[in-house]
Amino acid sequence: MQHLKRFLIGRPLKSSEEGGQKLGKLKALAMLSSDALSSVAYGTEQIVLVLTTLSAAAIWYSLPIAAFVLVLLLSLTLSYKQIIHAYPSGGGAYVVSSENLGRNAGLLAGGSLLIDYMLTVAVSVSAGAEAITSAIPALYGHQVTISIVIIILLMAMNLRGMSESANFLMVPVYLFVVAITVMIIWGLYRIATGDIPMQARAAVGSVVPGISAALIFRAFSSGSSSLTGVEAISNAVPFFKKPRAHNAASTLAIMASILGFFFAGITFLNYWYGIVPVAKVTVLSQVASFTFGHGFMYYVIQFATALILAVAANTGFSAFPVLAYNLAKDKYMPHMYQDRGDRLGYSNGIITLAVGSALLIAIFHGSTERLIPLYAVGVFIPFTLSQSGMIRHWLRLRPKGWFTKTIANFTGALISFAILIILFVYRLPDIWPFFIIMPVLLAFFYKIHSHYKNVAEQLRLPLAADETALHDYDGSTVIVLVGNVTRVTRGALDYAQTIGDYVIAMHVSMDENPNKEQETQNEFKTDFPDVRFVDVHSSYRSVVGPVIRFVDMIARNAAKRNYTTTVLIPQFVPKEKWQNILHNQTNLRLRAAFASRENIIVATYSYHLKK
Are the beta carbons of 38 and 314 closer than 8 angstroms? Predict the structure, then answer.
């Protein structure tokens, strides 16, 4: 297994090698922007899907809706640049909300982001699978399998370390950036030269019967899903090379510029071409088909889109482990999320994210449209809280230019909150699971925090000197569990007599072979005449129950004599690890059972086999 692990993950890295894992702007853009950039592959489609439920003529409303989405993008970009400079240690919405709005708001933001990052992986990978099936129709119907395979590959890549992940991601991310840029510029050129006449279903400003504010709001909230992933860079500032805050802010500005250009360009081309969503073919695929036909560039776009959507999930793999680390550091998640793996990444967070997102895809059958409303809620709660927190931050500190910064944060908070209200009012049938998951997650956070608080109180040494005095025992009782009389038994008894004042050998006999049980007793008494031998009969073939009852009785008597009680469990260790499954694991069950007993020490005597 170690050889396989080294092959898949690579050699362990020393802590001193962490500097080699830091990212420059070029690598960071690939590593942390893939989610935001890839969302243009389905952002326009989500707007048009909502509008066409009324009429294809309503597609022209996608243009003003896209303009409002771009205003929100600008506000969020300015806000998160401020967060990066104000909180260069990372943590994003969780840290900002916790410090400025209180712990409850911080946990709400943190919990929402944990859900969002799982949905990031699920949505991105599902959309990638859909892009693959659009290009290769023969694979249609296998989206769930394709998605889970992609998740496993991404998990393995991230377990290898951040720098290697970034090296790999540069190819699909920059291929996508170049391909979509060429498509938009070529499409606009063909439109400007009259090569592609206007085929829009209705002119801008046309009155569409039945249009309502509710429909516009629903389309706007769906289109705002294109902004997911904008916050990831603010969470990962520590990943950057120095000067970290400057490099992170510059990367965020570059990412936002590319995202805005892509979203505006694809939305306009979709309107001009008069494209209506159809089953099995994405809107982006249709835009590429109109622009290039079904030639070489069309397949480059499809291939680049499939790649970017697949690896867009990597933003989640980059941000989820860091957020889990921050929550674990504050004692709201298990401490195992603070542990770093062989390649200096937070491996437990990476594995948890992979398992959770795979389950989401299986539950929702890989349907992107069904996941996006939940995805949007998970995004806009942290957006609203982080920007509200920054308003309070500026009002409290009042640095130079605080008023302008406050206005930018207020605008973003207001629009984000408005989108939340729209989602709650118009998409409740799609997002109701959030209202179950979030309270459960918050209760989970508080339960963990309460546990760690109680543990600390009980383990902390008291201040009074007289309370720290150790108990002075008069002796030690050692109970050795005996199955058969073997070399393991002999070694365990020899050891027990070196540490114990009173040694008892205990054997559990069964009804299946009474002659063998009698032979074991006789053999033991012959070989160890000075050791007390106790045979406990078990009519129900259980070993654990009789052992626990006997040890409890001995422990009570030992306590009256001011003796400690130690249970010594002998075991032999096979030469090869795989051979363990060939033997009874009674010792594991016994240790687990004794863990609930106070004032009983459990020790293991191991005898190692040589062949």
Answer: no
What's the number of CA atoms in the CB half-sphere (13 Å) around residue 107? 20
Residue 515 tokens, joined: 């002659």
Residue 241's closest CA among 30, 22, 21? 22
* 563 phi/psi in degrees, rounded to 5: -110, 150
Q: What is the DSSP letter of 462?
A: P
d(CA 604, CA 430): 54
C-alpha 364/C-alpha 368 separation (Å) is: 8
pLDDT tens track for 151-191: 998 888 888 776 677 778 888 899 999 999 999 999 999 99
Residue 97 in contact with residue 109, Cβ under 8 Å? yes
* Position 446 pLDDT exceeds 90: yes
Count, in order, helices (H) and strands (E) of the chain: 22, 5
Cα(486)–Cα(466) distance, rounded to whole angstroms? 47
Q: Provide the pLDDT for residue 563.
A: 94
Q: Cα(60)–Cα(200) distance, rounded to whole angstroms? A: 8
Would you say 291 and 186 are in contact if contact means Cβ atoms under 8 Å apart? yes
**CB proximity list for 411: less than 8 A, separation 6 or greater:** 75
Q: Which residues contact 607 (CB under 8 A, 6 or more apart)?
A: 487, 488, 491, 570, 571, 572, 573
In 3D space, the residue among 89, 438, 57 whose CA is nearest the CA of residue 237 turns out to be 89
> Does residue 92 register a pLDDT over 90?
no
Write the burial class of residue 252 (CB in 10 Å: 0-12 exposed, 13-18 middle, 19+ buried): buried
Instruction: Inform me whether the pLDDT recorded for 573 exceeds 80.
Output: yes
- Please state, in angstroms and rounded to a whole number, the distance separating the CA atoms of residues 567 and 604: 8
The Cα 64–Cα 271 span in angstroms is: 11
In which order are the strands placed within the sheet that holds 600-608? 532-537, 502-509, 475-482, 563-573, 600-608
At 253, the pLDDT band (50, 70, 90 cuts) reads very high
> 299-333 burial, b for 16+ CB within 10 Å, e for fewer?
ebbbbbbbbbbbbbbbbbbbbbbbbbbbbbebbbb
For residue 243, say if its preceding peptide bond is cis, omega within 30 degrees of 0: yes
Q: pLDDT of 291-326, one tens digit each?
A: 998 888 998 998 888 788 767 778 788 888 888 988
Of the candidates 324, 337, 360, which has an alpha carbon nearest to the alpha carbon of residue 118? 360
